[in-house]
Known about the structure:
Number of domains: 3
Amino acid sequence: MSDICDDPPALGRLADLDRRWVPSGTVEFDVTRVRTMGYQPGLDGLRAISVVAVILYHAGFGWMRGGFFGVEVFFVVSGFLITSLLLDEREKNQRVNLGQFWVRRARRLLPALFTMMLAVALWASMFGTAEQQSTLKRDLPWSIFYLGNWGQILGHAPYFASADPPLLRHLWSLAVEEQWYLIWPLVFIAAMSVGTTRLSTRAKAFAATAFALMVLNFMYLSTFTRASGLLLGAGAAFVWRPWRSTRKMLKFGTRLDPFGAATLTLLVCIMSVAELTAGYVYQWLLALVSVLSILTIMVVVHPAALGFRSLLSWRPLVEIGRRSYGLYLWHWPIFVFSHTYHSGSYTRFVVATLITVAVSEVSYRFIETPIRNDFVHQWFRDQRAAMGSDRVRRIRRTTTVLGVVGAIAVGMVGFYASVAHFDPAVGGTEVFFSVPTIPLPTTVPFDPAVTTTAPVAPVVSVAPSLPRRVTIVGDSQAHALAINLPTGIESTFTINDGSIDGCGVYDTGRVVSTRTSFRRSFADCSGWAAKWGRSASSAKAEVALVVLGAWDVFDLRLADRTLLFGTPEADAFYLAQLQQGIDSLKATGAHVALLEVACMRPKDVKGAGVPALPERGDDTRTGHVNDLLKQAAAKDPIHVSFVAGPQAWCSDQAISVDLAYRWDGVHVYKAGANLIFLIITPALLKLPVQ
Length: 690
């Protein structure tokens, strides 16, 4: 059979087929002449699927639990696309114009970003909560310089927390991409300037680096970790350039369409069923998604994959893909402001999505597209050519618009400079601590490890050395206790805050509540036990006071099963997790004091990050957790103690529901902290310490 690549009529038929499959309004792909990648409408179609998956995931629909993988697809597309463009430019001009590359990226990304941030800052200043204003003050500087991911890492902002999330939290992924755009061209030029001339050798090096980063995966938001998908796409671009050779284009023939359909189907299935809290997501599934993404991209840019290219070049998909940047930028703050984020509400989703589409379309038409098409340069050229009063009117109109925008920006800078740091746990009327009378023991405590039959002489105990060094560890209840200390307690205790907000003793799974709209994953709590130990060690703590309860009273959904509260399986899992924290604290030499979990009376309070969850108000559940804490203490009575707290939390309604004691019925204010310390101080001072 003759080689079809040498048959001009056959090439013409293939070109006709390709044009027949590509929808009107997109760039046609003429296989008889194209030597560069050109515009690939199918890549915009793939972007559309990815951004829709992300939006559905953020809406909280259970049938799109893995939609966060859409971001990884974006990374792989960017790595492949940018590297292909750099290779084409270098081949055409024998060099890469870095200045023009960065200018094009800036024109494409910065105008829409700054517009969104200015709009969000203005909206939040008028209608946002104190917490939203405080987090904006923290996040805006990082986001302006495309360092949002590092701002969240260094600021310990919990990415996976679901309640009242930061308005600019989604910019972490754009920060990763922008850092890639800044650094990768330099790496590309260096790699192309030294060593072997074979592109495949460089491709293998970049692919190997990508897989190494996938294996390490040490920080979810880290540029190094998330660069794995970008590098994989870049590596593929060195060896997969099917538009350059008709022989390569036709080599695979009809095999490409079903292969592309299979990889895309697998991606969509993973996006539908993957669970964020599952360990396998970070162990191997994220890497698999990257591989499936690049395989899908390799098919969609191949001219011989006529059917698959047609599918992803469907005009509605392409138009969504072209607007994917704006949709991603705007949907998040709109979802947060409208309480659509993880609500699972179809009504809220439809309304918020319509607003997102409208706002992003305005941004696309009047901000992104004009500036990307060099509107500014064209405008100045027109002004130079204009004559008379018409030119004056144009200049005045433009100056007025720029002046208004500049004034708003300056006003926002001034407003957020004055915003105080927000911590909902800080507050309450000032109270003064008085040391309660503490009866000292007159005998040595019984030690079951001592088997001697000789009589033990009573020993007069020496008063404890004050102030006693105490590190408070645990969840947000521990934080509230540590920062609302009554005045005067410093002469009795030196308190160190070692709490981890939003984290109890779990580092996997998520909360299951009857209030189904609430979501809380513990995926960001990895290493909590080690952090407890480091806090106690750095403070040279004599006592480590463990304050838990906020997250211990729920069912726990793991990747493969749900642990129902109170069942033997759930109890065993909880005790095993708790023991990790106890062991970490004991290793520092501190005596571990497990504080009794208080009866909670949760209230829906404005500004609270977590709504009133029914499980927290169930005294049977808190009682069961206390039974488990007593079991943990009984295993090692020499080094671990159970400390009873105020019974008023359960029995005295005048105190238990008074928001002056606990501002949301769960977290204490100063009066509540004072009540706790008045009750537990005698027990803490009696504890044997090293």
